[in-house]
Design brief:
The longest helix has 25 residues, at about 85-110. Strand 5 (about 130) and strand 6 form a beta hairpin. By secondary structure, the chain is of the alpha/beta class. The strands form 5 sheets. Strands 1, 2, 3, 4, 5, 6 and 17 form a 7-stranded mixed beta sheet that branches. The protein is globular. Helix 1 (about 15-25) packs parallel to helix 7, helix 3 (about 50-65) runs antiparallel to helix 4 (about 85-110) and helix 3 packs parallel to helix 5. The chain starts with a strand and ends in a 7-residue tail after the last helix. The protein has helices at about 15-25, 40-45, 50-65, 85-110, 190-200, 220-230, 325-340, 370-375, 390-395, 425-435, 440-445, 455-465, and strands at about 5-10, 30-35, 115-120, 120-125, 130, 140-150, 150-155, 165-170, 180-185, 205-210, 235-240, 245-250, 255-260, 265, 270, 275-280, 310-315, 355, 360-365, 380-385, 400-405, 415-420.
């Protein structure tokens, strides 16, 4: 294994491994440093992939009780308690999927002749990276370019102790051996809402405590309200504008004390889900003069992802952009293109889709209505429900809507907000359209196949112009 490279990447998550592959495909001699036993980062191992596997099991469990309505009858299934959840199998399937995808990343490293170096990587001066192996031994690599892609970790609160057993983080809850009878979730953001939807459908009595005025505070207010309404049908109580004073494990139970209440609420388990923090500790930033911003992120120029240090780049969850796997991968490929001398238009983060995998799913791009209202900008709203679309009825997913916000004068699409079982698939059309500066007229004149869920996009476009057809 060499000690001199064109590119050394620290971290092997969706930013790191994608950057390494893209670099190798462009002829750069590349190494990836990873301190964990596995490749793929948080997303693959304790984030996106295992949680979505569990959410799919929850969806199948929910759908199984409705099979007779589709004309699919299973002998004995109509008896009370005949359809049960095999939670160990849920976990087994989740773990098998993670193992398979993990193996795929390892294969891609070999295929592209990328050196994978195990250990803790840290900057050690200009063009140098020090690696500390598990046994404590140290080695140094020389690099023409260095990419920091160390990702993020669970954000903790100083007044709440996470013990990993009764009071858990999103890392720990993936390893429960049974479904808890009751579950308190502190934080109604993306992660908290996904686990609420998952365990609520598994049978837990879930209560979400959110300090903001709405669930999923990053989303449009109507989207948040629709999701909250849906979660209530899934065994989930949503409490907003509440402040939790303490969460304490006592005698195999968890006590949650809410400000303004005298007695604590008691649950079997609690999940702390209050966001993620960048992993920037002990990666040698001071050795090259990189200083963090006020929020603890690595500052970069978003036109090239360069840090203040020569030939050192940073992408993904360590910089102040949306902490999303697909965003990190896009930034990684952009940074490599810069290193390779390719010219590209900077990423437009208003076309970067947000995705929440609850039931129904939530997806969005661009501006929220409440923000445009605060800015005093003139806009129009077109909204269309999936319940009016035949394919949504056929697939038994009539819940939700598409909301398109447009500029009143020019018809520019300012924001799109979707609540639906397939929202995360449908949003991509808008991402492409907005990158191409599509207007609402162009969208309304685009033929969509029938019968499909995508017809709702066409109808919402017509609604934005004032004349939806099928409602």
């Amino acid at each position: 294994m060499s000690t001199s490279y064109d590119l050394v990447v620290i971290g092997s998550g969706p930013a790191g491994y994608v950057a390494a592959i893209h670099a190798a495909q462009n002829g750069l001699k590349t190494a990836v440093i990873e301190k964990k036993d596995w490749l793929g980062g948080t997303c693959l191992n304790v984030g996106c992939i295992p949680t979505k596997a569990m959410l799919h099991s929850a969806a199948m469990y929910d759908k199984a009780s409705k099979l007779a309505s589709y004309g699919v009858k299973i002998a004995g299934a109509e008896k009370p308690g005949a359809i049960t959840l095999d939670f160990p199998q849920v976990n087994k399937r989740k773990d098998e999927i993670v193992k398979h995808v993990n193996g795929g990343v390892a294969f891609l490293m070999k295929k592209n002749k990328i050196d994978v170096i195990r250990g803790m990587g840290r900057l050690a001066g200009a063009g140098q990276v020090e690696v500390t192996a598990a046994d404590g031994s140290k080695s140094k690599l020389q690099a023409k370019h260095i990419l920091l892609a160390t990702g993020s970790k669970v954000r903790e609160l100083p007044h709440i102790k996470i013990d990993g057993k009764d009071i858990m983080s999103s890392d720990h809850i993936l390893y429960l051996d049974k479904v808890p009878e009751s579950l308190a979730i502190l934080g109604g953001g993306v992660v908290g809402s996904e686990f609420a939807s998952c365990f609520g459908r598994f049978g837990s009595k879930v209560t979400v405590f959110e300090m903001s005025e709405q669930l999923v505070p990053s989303e449009d207010f109507e989207t948040a309200a629709e999701l909250a309404k849906a979660l209530k049908k899934q065994n989930v109580e949503v409490l907003t504008s509440v402040k939790v004073k303490s969460i304490t494990a006592k005698g195999g139970k968890v006590e949650v004390l809410v400000e303004g209440e005298t007695a604590p609420r008691v649950f079997e388990k609690a999940l702390i889900s209050v966001g993620r923090a960048p992993v920037i500790e002990d990666i040698g930033l001071e050795s090259v003069g990189i200083k963090l911003d006020a929020r603890g992120f690595i500052p970069v120029d978003l036109k090239n992802y360069k840090t203040s240090a020569a030939n050192v780049y940073a992408v993904g969850d360590v910089i102040p952009t949306p902490q999303l796997a697909h965003t990190a991968s896009a930034e990684a490929m952009f940074a490599i293109d810069v290193i390779c001398g390719k010219k590209r238009t900077p990423i437009n983060y208003l076309t970067n889709p947000g995705a929440i995998y609850t039931y129904p799913e939530v997806a969005s791009i661009g501006h929220r209505e409440q923000d445009l209202k605060k800015e005093g900008r003139e806009y129009s709203v077109g909204k269309f429900p999936f319940s009016a679309i035949a394919k949504a009825r056929i697939e038994d997913c009539p819940d939700g809507f598409i909301k398109i916000i447009t500029d009143k004068k020019y018809g520019e699409i300012l924001g799109v907000h979707i609540v639906h079982a397939k929202a995360t698939e449908l949003i991509a059309e808008f991402s492409l359209g907005n990158n191409l500066e599509m207007t609402i007229d162009e969208l309304a004149h685009t033929i969509h196949p029938h019968p499909t869920l995508s017809e709702t996009i066409l109808e919402a476009a017509h609604a934005a112009k004032g004349h939806a057809i099928h409602i």
